[in-house]
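Problem: given the chain below (285 residues), write out its structure.
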Amino acid sequence: MKFDKQNIGTICINGIFTKKIDIADRGFQFGDGIFETIAFSKDNLEFWSEHMSRLKKGCKVLSMPCPDLKKIFFKAKKMCKSFNAQGALKLIVSRGIGERGYKIPEKIKPSWAISLYPWPKFPEANFIQGVNVRKCITTISRQPLLSRIKHLNRLEQVLARSEWKARNITEGLMCDDKDHVIEGTMSNIFLVKNNNLYTPNLDFCGIDGIMRNIVIKIAKSKNIKISIQKIKYNELFKADGLFLVNSLIGIWPIRRLDNKIYQPIDLTKEIANRLEKITVINRIL
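Solution.
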């Protein structure tokens, strides 16, 4: 079966090709659920096991049954193969349909939805020269119970991303209420200093990014010292270099933050080259 990219066949809810979801679904009502965004090339879903591991952790944190991931995997592969192109897959898992009110239903039947999207065409300069970044006014709430998981409540990121319209700004950095940098609106951040790597501690807030963990593994395999710690925003300006990561962009160096210009760093290039060897996606189309 071949699906046109605008066809309803690119959206599947609970195994059925449809765009309709029950208004009583708790994902819609309360943001009661989790999601994953996965890069794919035809039916090759990049870092699927890592994404599913985080999804299962999210279900556990939310005390929510995990849906049948084997069924979802085979459905996702079939859809991606029919898409017949490189793209982005979004998987949403909610607690399912419930009655009015916050109380968790006694009987829970999770809902899941798969949607496919064309690959975003990122400028080649983002990967080579780097991107311009700013600090967001909107902060990230400290909530250790929800830290690290990719839950559906993204209003802080929505507000943060609405702070700028300038096309020369690609990403915004978000801090907690103590001015510790946590992450970008859609990315995790790394600092390079004296050929060592640093990335923010996520014990109280922030998403434990799949690509963040891949970079950490690459660094350890290359005996690159890496520290996961609290990082004040002002410390970013003392770094030799900065870069952003997520599952779609891979690695983007930061060229400019506020009025600070960063020069290309060999260590960033080394990690990006290593990443390219273990991924299935051509991120520069």
